[in-house]
Write a structure and sequence with these properties.
binds 2'-monophosphoadenosine-5'-diphosphate; 22% strand; alpha/beta
């Protein structure tokens, strides 16, 4: 008889996490028995909670906002993606060693590939300079784009972010969110939390053009505010982050179980 494996996602807030549903679908399809819970953990209790959960026999943990940097600091062994992004969303423990990986960037790339969006030699813009932007930049750089420009409301945060990728400085650029652009982005990725917080997002006037591709890391059952804006400008190639969410989960699942789940889950099954 195979042993029931316990997993959880930890973060705060965590109530609306779709990870338990996604992982349960993966496990059911593969015929693996698991439990997967969403557990609220505040930053000040992060280290003690992780220690306790591993002691209680959890085989793997997903880590979400605002704990990804704390997980990066806590892990004993880090993957290349985690080292480059300063972020961990997947933890597991083997023979007393806590391992950390970041599957967000790879999850995004897989979703883009599935959508036939090629990044090679493309002029990419990322809006926002927080943890979500940082987590995806290493994977985007690996796809060999022409350039990645970071646009942010607080320019010092964009500068700080660029500092952490100083060895790629010749392929990166930054701009103030409200400045007019002197170049034409081909792929625009929204990593800001403006939409989730129901706040407006001030953009450079000339940034949205009909033939560009838009990817919003956020998702909701209906179009996100950012995608609504893109549609209103006649943009047809637009996507939300649900595909990335599913792919990053599939990559975590594979790390923990060695099995590759079927990632073709529809939004209707989840939201
Ligand atoms: P995350 O880890 O999800 O990236 P974060 O680190 O808080 O969250 O970063 C949120 C990003 O969204 C930041 O770049 C933030 O801009 P500032 O650095 O200027 O704060 C951006 N953001 C959030 N709300 C915004 C708004 N209403 N308009 C423009 N940018 C916004």
């Amino acid at each position: 008889m195979t042993e029931l494996k316990k997993f959880a996602v930890i973060g705060s807030p965590i109530d609306h996490s779709l990870s338990p549903k996604i992982h349960s679908i993966f496990a059911k399809e593969l015929g693996i028995e698991i439990t997967y819970e969403a557990i609220n953990v505040e930053p000040q209790h992060f280290d003690s909670s992780v220690t306790r959960l591993f002691e209680e026999g959890y085989a793997g943990l997903n880590v979400t906002l605002p704990l990804k940097e704390l997980a990066f600091k806590l892990a004993d062994e880090l993957s290349d993606d985690s080292n480059l992004s300063g972020s961990v969303n997947t933890l597991w423990k083997e023979e007393g060693i806590i391992y950390g990986d970041s599957t967000d960037g790879k999850g995004l790339i897989r979703d883009l590939q599935e959508k036939k969006i090629n990044l090679k030699n493309k002029e990419i813009v990322i809006l926002g300079a927080g943890g979500s932007a940082k987590a995806i930049i290493p994977s985007l750089l690996k796809e060999d784009p022409q350039r990645i420009s970071i646009g942010n409301r607080t320019i010092s945060k964009a500068e700080e972010l660029l500092e952490s990728f100083s060895s790629f400085r010749d392929r990166m650029n930054l701009f103030q969110m409200t400045d007019n652009l002197n170049f034409k982005p081909e792929i625009l990725i929204n990593s800001t939390s403006a939409g989730i917080k129901n706040q407006s997002l001030e953009l450079p006037e000339d940034i949205l053009t009909k033939d560009m591709c838009i990817y919003d890391l956020s998702y909701s059952f209906e179009d996100t505010p950012f995608l609504k804006l893109a549609k209103s400008k006649g943009i047809e190639n637009y996507h939300d982050g649900i595909g990335m969410l599913i792919h990053q989960a599939a990559l975590s699942f594979k790390i923990w179980t060695g099995q590759v789940p079927n990632s073709s889950i529809s939004k209707d099954e989840l939201l």
